[in-house]
Write a structure and sequence with these properties.
The protein is an alpha/beta fold. The strands form eight sheets. Strands 16-17-18-19-20-21-23-25-26-27-28-30-32-33-35-37 form a 16-stranded parallel beta sheet, covered by helices on one side. A six-stranded parallel beta sheet has the order 7-8-10-12-14-15, with no helix packed on it. The longest helix is centred in the first third of the chain and has 43 residues, at 68-110. The radius of gyration is 35 Å and the shape is globular. It starts with a helix and ends in a 16-residue tail after the last strand. Residues 1-26 form the signal peptide. This is NB-ARC domain-containing protein. Residues 427-491 form the Disease resistance protein winged helix domain.
């Protein structure tokens, strides 16, 4: 604790020095406590590298024994002082940015009055800016704002010295504490052996056999298998089962702390199975020291159980074994065996329903099931059962609760910086699915991503997320992330009062220790009143969201902005406002860094928003049919903005315009410029100065806004002097751009910079509803991977210029996906030479009714091809690696070339298609309305066929009876009256679905003995035979 005091003291000393400096040394406007503290204590700057931390675990350690309560109070007060110091720094940064914004404003206004006046004003405002904010000694006194900041810093320093003096007077040391061990610490010291009661283990037989098979299949003298999973999943139990299996040879337990020489004497030329349980070490050297003696054995197999995938990757010599939760059946079997052991089933019949709900609550975690079953064993009081059901697992009797110490180990082994990120997860509800972007923004908005490079925070967030995944704290479910309920309860437990989540009920007051609050609201028919929610003077973040869909509507009182002046973050995501506007008092939140108001239709931001000089994120994105937000003129003063996903340019002096982007040099990530039709003169586009904004990665240019009539500040669009061609030409982005989208541009020519080789980092381009008469040379972009071209009504021909301007080079070297859509005049595609499109995997062409053929040298690597509404297309080139082919409304195609690798074919409404070629690997065939199809060769690998529409009877018979590998048949047709199947020719068929309103007979149906699914719907004339239950 003493070291923490000294570190904090050095920080406040540096802060006070920065704010009251009267020496000749000058400090820049961006200098902060962090930089100053780094000079005296480098470890302070990076909490993840040995720096001080005031987290819950430190408080608990200080809280053990005599004087613990006093130590906990001191740490709480130190935390409060740290927040106060942060406020001082934030105020100082606000003043610095405000003065700089005013200086840039003055310079901009003077620019129109001539060069001499511009030079004079620039010199005056810059001198004034540096004399007040950077504290270069001047003849006049310090500005009042600076004097106030210095006084506040001295007050904090005085209070810190008082705390330090009290601490030193008490002479508290670690030896002054009572020597006692709390229950959690004692029970977290795990000791395991090979002894296990196998009859009490359920649902792990398959896992045990899989692991034994993996161990026995290894041919190397020494091999290591890691069993990975979250705490309480049963990794140790599984290792014990494997250790005791008779198929393995083993020796007695080894004392792994012996010297290597002694260990070699014990194991040399022996056959060993060693189990290392609950391993946390992530360093290579100790592991190598352990493995060295093992190389002297004749045969050595090592099983390592761990929660960390990093540990697994360090030790494993074969793929790790990820252990999953128990199935519902296995979970109930485990619970029932112990809870109701030796009891008459009639005696516990009343508890079965409650017990099933309790088991569901455990979500397949064996440790949780065992803990609850031990609490309820021989329990006959129904109230006690309901109490266990309704209580959080974390709040149950600690004397019987093994869950807390088992899972808390995961938290204790986290680095300091990751612990705080883990606490922030408590702001999400249970069973909440969150995206990577949402989680990283949460951490970013709470100031938990530790990096000096503000543009590197997303990468840091991804590393933190990856770390939590490797530690089995977060689970990845398809495209979203979630947590087990017990892990979520652990996050809530360690977060304490600093993080608070509310659902539905909102109290009138919250604790002064709450710094970050999330409120999840349901959708209601009436307005949810938040007028009594005023926050608190200590509140840093308010997040309003909904569990599913849209929550609200709500009214936010302006008193929230009055009482919670220290707010850094306000987020409304998935919550509607009763009145789509914010009160002017939001402009008083000078500490505000992040303002997110997503999907609030017709949102009107007050002009006072332009006073938030510390603002880094302004996100008013709308989707679907939501009307775009109305942003006032003047946001160009917010020079600290890093994230501004969308701006809608509108007419009138009140609205923001392109000039507002001029001084926003810190913009990063994605930027959508909507309403470019409203740019009145070319100078506006030029002054946006996009080419200097090196941190913007994705740009979307949309010319119409279409919503001017919904804005009370707007006025009807009028003709402008700037053409789309001139506007787009002057919006050239920086060469660091990676994604570009252009929509509804009425220029006949593309801008000269589009396709320029200097844009070597562009990976994604979308051109939609543009009136370009020829294609830009996009093939020259070496990194381009995804290209979409849609609604280009003036394009008639695509030639070699699309791939390259230099005939000696090849084009599209990295392109993976190419999509064309709605190209009504496109006649010809030529000029694709050998060596172009070498990486192309997916090609989609839709609604190109005049296109006659595809280039022969298109791509040998093409795997997926989609052609829809290409009525005049007469030929498809040979594509040796084609895996999937989708054809719709290609009326001129009569046949297909042989595709030796094709596995899925979907053909519909191809009226001239007469023949299918030999397709030896085809597995899935979907046919719809191909009336002239008469010839189909043998398809030896076919497993599924879907037939829709009218077909010849002999063709249908061929499909259903000549492919013994068929497993699934679906027939939907109005014309079929009789269907014949020969069971002896369909030995693999497991699913048959029929929807044929005129079908009267289905011969052979009763003989399909392997059928598992028979679904007949919309067949009123068909009599289905009675099938034996074993057949379905």
């Amino acid at each position: 604790m003493a070291s923490a005091f000294s570190m904090v003291r050095s920080i406040f000393a540096a802060m006070a020095c920065a704010l009251t400096c009267d020496t000749a040394e000058s400090y820049t406007g961006h200098l902060s406590i962090r930089v100053l503290a780094e000079r005296e204590h480098p470890s302070v700057a990076e909490p993840g590298r040995g720096g001080w931390s005031l987290d819950r675990e430190d408080g608990r350690r200080q809280g053990q024994g005599h004087g613990g309560r006093r130590g906990g109070l001191r740490l709480r007060e130190l935390r409060g002082l740290a927040y106060d110091a942060e406020d001082v720094v934030s105020d100082r940064e606000y003043e610095a940015v405000r003065r700089r914004a005013e200086a840039l404003d003055a310079v901009g206004r003077a620019g129109s009055d001539g060069g001499h006046r511009l030079k004079r004003v620039r010199r005056e405002v810059i001198d004034d800016y540096f004399s007040d904010i950077d504290m270069v000694p001047a003849k006049h006194d310090l500005a009042p704002a600076v004097r106030d900041l210095a006084a506040r810093a001295r007050k904090i320093r005085v209070r810190l010295d008082e705390i330090i003096k009290e601490h030193e007077d008490l002479c508290m040391t670690d030896n002054d504490e009572e020597q006692q061990i709390d229950l959690a610490t004692q029970r977290s010291q795990r000791y395991t052996s090979s002894i296990v009661h196998e009859p009490s283990i359920h649902g792990r037989e398959v896992d045990k056999n899989n692991i034994i098979k993996m161990l026995l299949s290894e041919v190397r003298p020494m091999s290591v298998l890691a069993i990975v999973g979250m705490g309480g999943l049963g990794k140790t139990t599984l290792a014990q089962l494997v250790f005791n299996d008779q198929r393995k040879q083993k020796c007695g337990a080894l004392e792994l702390n012996d010297l290597q020489e002694a260990l070699i004497e014990q194991i040399e030329r022996k056959k060993l199975l060693i189990v290392l349980d609950d391993v946390w070490n992530e360093y290579r050297a100790p592991w190598d020291s352990l493995c060295a003696p093992m190389m002297t054995t004749e045969f050595c197999r090592i099983i390592v159980t761990t929660r960390s995938k990093t540990v697994a990757s360090l030790v494993q010599t074969m793929p790790s074994y990820s252990l999953n939760c128990l199935t519902s059946a296995a979970s109930w079997s485990l619970f029932e065996q112990i809870t109701f052991e030796g009891q008459d089933p009639a005696a516990y019949a009343n508890f079965i329903q409650i017990g099933e709900e309790i088991v569901k609550k455990c979500k397949g975690l064996p440790l949780a099931i065992k803990t609850l079953e031990s609490m309820l064993r021989y329990e006959t009081d129904e109230e006690r059962w309901n109490y266990v059901l309704e209580s959080d697992l974390w709040d149950l009797d600690p004397q019987q609760n093994d869950i807390v110490p088992a899972l808390e180990l995961s938290y204790r082994h986290m680095p300091v910086y990751l612990k705080k990120c883990f606490m922030a997860l408590s702001l999400f509800p249970k069973d909440y699915h969150f995206s990577q972007d949402k989680l990283i923004f949460l951490w970013k908005s709470l100031g938990l991503l530790h990096t000096d490079d503000v543009w590197d925070k997303d990468r840091t967030g991804k590393l933190y997320l990856s770390d939590l995944l490797k530690r089995s704290i977060i689970q990845c479910n398809e495209h979203a992330y979630t947590m087990h309920d017990l892990i979520h309860e652990l996050a809530c437990c360690v977060a304490g009062e600093e993080f608070l989540r509310l659902e539905n009920d909102i109290p009138a007051q919250i604790s002064k220790d709450v710094r970050n609050i999330s409120i999840f609201l349901p959708w209601t028919c009436v307005t949810s009143k938040l007028e009594h929610f005023h926050g608190s003077s200590a509140l840093r973040a308010v997040i309003l969201s909904s569990m599913e869909g849209l929550g609200g509507p709500i009214e936010i009182s302006d008193e929230l902005f009055v009482y919670s002046k220290q707010l850094r973050t306000i987020v409304l995501d998935g919550v509607s406002l009763a009145r789509p506007s914010l009160h002017d008092s939001v402009g008083n939140l000078k500490h505000l860094h992040h303002l997110v108001l997503r999907d609030i239709g017709g949102l009107k931001l007050p002009i006072s928003i332009c006073q938030l000089f510390n603002l880094q994120t302004l996100d008013v994105t709308t989707s679907g049919n939501f009307k775009p937000a109305c942003i006032p003129n003047g946001i160009g003063r917010l020079i600290n903005l890093h994230t501004l996903p969308v701006i809608t340019v509108k007419r009138g002096a009140w609205h923001c315009n392109m000039r507002d982007l001029k001084d926003l040099q810190n913009l990063s990530g994605k930027l959508c410029l909507k309403g470019l039709d409203n740019v009145t003169i070319v100078d506006e586009a030029e002054e946006a100065n996009l080419c200097s904004k090196q941190h913007i990665r994705a740009l979307n240019f949309i010319f119409p806004d279409g919503d001017w009539q919904y804005c009370k500040h707007g006025q009807e669009p009028a003709p402008t002097t700037a053409s789309h061609e001139e506007i787009l030409e002057n919006l050239q982005p920086h060469s660091n751009l990676t994604e570009l989208s252009i929509e509804v541009c009425r220029s006949c020519r593309y801008p000269s910079w589009l396709g320029d080789t200097s844009f070597s980092k562009v990976t994604v381009i979308r051109l939609e509803y543009c009136q370009f008469e020829c294609m830009p040379p996009l093939g020259q972009l070496l990194a381009l991977q995804y290209l979409t071209i849609a609604e280009m009504s003036r394009i008639k021909s695509i030639g070699p210029e699309f791939c390259r301007l230099n005939p000696k080079t090849t084009g599209f070297k990295s392109l993976v996906t190419l999509e064309f859509d709605s190209m009504p005049r496109w006649l010809q595609w030529s000029g694709v030479g050998d060596g172009s499109f070498t990486c192309l995997r997916t090609l989609s062409i839709q609604h190109a009714s005049e296109l006659r053929s595809l280039p022969c040298a298109l791509s040998l690597s093409l795997a997926q091809l989609k052609l829809r509404d290409c009525k005049n297309l007469v030929r498809i080139p040979h594509l040796p690696l084609l895996f999937k082919l989708d054809l719709r409304q290609c009326d001129s195609l009569t046949e297909l070339p042989a595709f030796p690798m094709l596995q899925r074919l979907d053909i519909g409404q191809c009226s001239s298609m007469a023949r299918l070629p030999d397709l030896p690997l085809l597995k899935v065939l979907i046919l719809q309305d191909c009336p002239n199809l008469t010839t189909v060769v043998h398809l030896p690998s076919l497993t599924s066929i879907h037939v829709k529409g009218g077909f010849r009877n002999e063709l249908l018979y061929h499909f259903t009876n000549c492919h013994p590998s068929l497993e699934n048949i679906l027939i939907v047709s109005d014309s079929i009256e009789r269907l014949s199947v020969e069971p002896q020719n369909l030995p693999s068929l497991v699913s048959l679905k029929l929807s044929c309103p005129n079908l009267q007979f289905c011969d052979g149906l009763a003989g399909l003995t392997y059928l598992k699914e028979l679904k007949v719907y919309g067949c009123p004339k068909l009599s289905v035979p009675n099938l034996h239950p074993s057949q379905l």
